[in-house]
Structure formats: C-alpha cells, structure tokens
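Two proteins were folded this term; both appear here.
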Amino acid sequence: MDSDTRKITGAEAMIRCMEAEGVTDVFGLPGGAILPLYDAWAACDHTIRHYLVRHEQGAGHMAQGYARATGRVGVAIATSGPGATNLVTPIRTPIWTRRRSSASPARCRPT
C-alpha cells in the first residue's frame, strides 16, 4: 500500500460516494445502527448539508419534494429495522410517479 493511501470506514466511503455523485443535501434521523455514519459525518470534511427530521417518513418525503423541486436526487437516511420500514411509502411513491430519489436504510458496523 502506498504511503498516500489512507484507509477509510464504510461510513466515510458513503459520504465520499454521495459527494462524488453531486449530492449536496440529505434528510435523515440518527438512530442505533446508522450512528457510525453520523460519527463520520462529524469527523470528516465534506460539503453535504444534513437536515435533521423528526421521523424517517418525513425524511423520505422531504427528499422526494427536494427531487421534484430541484431536479436533483433526493437522499433520505434512516437506520435499519423500523427506520427502514418508515421509508417504504416515500421510497415507493417516486417509482409510481417516476421521480428521482434515493433512500438508503443502512447498517454500519464499527471497525
């Protein structure tokens, strides 16, 4: 491995991938399994703005509205389990209406 190569966590990789895809805004709610992503969010430099919501379904609908209003991909972040279940309607609605949005219920494991 080169001395210039630095290991990063999966959580930081998610942030870097969103940046590479041009994501500038995300909507989400911290919880259990997704906390390593939020730790990485605070620890690394990035340009993505996070909007804290009170419910995962709200994050999904906000991402959907963002996508409709801006033409950009809307991103909702939620934890696994009930958090992911609360994203079902917002995930499905853009498919029915042919709108672009992305929701990623994720489980991050500490390294």
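Next, the second protein.
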Amino acid sequence: MPRLQYRTPLALALILGGLSLSACATRDYVDEQIAAVNMHVAAVDAKASDAIQRADAAAGAAQSANSAAQAAATAAQAAAADAQRANQRLDQLPPPAPPEAPRKRPRH
C-alpha cells in the first residue's frame, strides 16, 4: 500500500496543475471576441436590411404591374364587348342591293 499513498498526492497534484493551466479568458480577450462577433452581426444586419429594402421595392413594382395588367384586361374586355355589339348591328342590317348593270350610253 505504500505505493498507493505516493500516487494519490501525485495524481492530485497533476489534476490541480492541469486545472490551473487551463486558461481562463481575460476580460480583454473576451472584449475582443465580442467586438469581432458584434462587427459580424452588424454586417449581416446591414445586408439583411438592404435585402429587405430591395424586396419591398420589388413587391411595389409587382403590385404596380399587376394593377396595370388588370386595367389592360378591363380595357380589352370593354373593346371586345364593343366589337361584339358592332357585329350584332351589322348582322341586323338588310342585305345590300345587287349592283346595277352598267348603263350603255347612247351613240350620237
């Protein structure tokens, strides 16, 4: 058992030494890391804001195009209805008279 008595303090010393060597982050190191992360977050936020603005502009343009298309469709339907009414009026007209034969001129 004498060997066990020597190993226990040695093992304890190694464990404590290992724990003391594990680096604790200094305040400056943490501040530097946080600053780097904050810069990255700010850059990503700026890109996201830009993308949102472009998406909003595209949505506005799409809504304008949709409104123009609906107005054109309404105008086309009105023109089609006018053409149909004009064709119905033409169908109700009496047939044209046959052409007259050309008259001969008397010779003098």
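The chain has two helices and no strands. The mean pLDDT is 86. These notes refer to the second protein only.
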